[in-house]
């Protein structure tokens, strides 16, 4: 039941807010089918806020009182929440981090009001989210991609220690990295989508992948013949070498090919490759290739979209290929293309800067 009194004991209010937050997170997970990343982020932000609230004990007019007995009014509750938003620790955070914090709380407050978990007067009416500066996405050009692929032979694994691998394992990791990078660059897959792939979701004959993207939305992604060739080589000659290294398989079954439900990309331990490992791999490959900018997985996806638009593919098609729900997510690449046109114009036209 939502609070109806003019004031509430502080512990009671905290309990109500905590209970409401649990209902909200269940709503995100079950009803909204939010991604694991969103659930982790919102759970962390709301959890940090509740933990901070637990350390704040309202006092009476004489500066006395305890959290166990203190009574709080709706106006005081709103002030305390606003105080959290204005904490000095926010000064050292990036605007994107502050925006994520406020977006999580604002979404929670809206849900709590609509579901009558907390009465309106107890929560702020408005919680502004700082406007994000528009940043043009970084992407890899075709020559830079070739530099990256050439570096694969020199750096077959993410080196986190002095550990070395037998030659067959090193060759398998090299083949895996080559297939992974070619697939991501020519399909525009998110790194989370790429590492989640199973062999049954890939059709190397047609160059198509059935992808389960954000919000469990399914789409068809396409990849190049070169990526298909690299995937077939990795599957037929090297995948089994990695699969057999898993400690979960004490006595590996005799097999020659992966089954449809087994993951495409494996790590050096024979288990599914993680998105974080791909990030580390690309960062090191970028350094090995001598690229000036730091390379991260999304640069491959940015490059995919940018190359399509530069080759006159319409925006709606790019949106579908990228798996964007809103066209607004795709329009950032038109800004990128426009910027390149502007630079070319200024360099080429004799009166562009006059």
What does this structure look like?
By secondary structure, this protein is mainly alpha-helical. The chain folds into two domains: 8-122, DNA polymerase, domain 1 (Orthogonal Bundle); 142-299, hpI Integrase, Chain A (Orthogonal Bundle). Helices cover 53% and strands 5% of the residues. The chain contains 13 helices and five strands. It has helices at 10-31, 36-54, 74-85, 95-114, 142-152, 167-187, 191-195, 225-237, 239-243, 275-289, 297-310, 315-322, 328-348, and strands at residues 8-9, 71-72, 202-203, 208-212, 218-222. The strands form two sheets. A three-stranded antiparallel β-sheet has the order 3-4-5. It has a two-stranded antiparallel sheet with strand order 1-2. Helix 11 packs across helix 13. The longest helix has 22 residues, at 10-31. The radius of gyration is 26 Å and the shape is elongated. Residues 157-162 have low confidence and may be disordered.
Question: What is the structure about, briefly put?
Answer:
This protein has 354 residues and is mainly alpha-helical. Helices cover 53% and strands 5% of the residues.
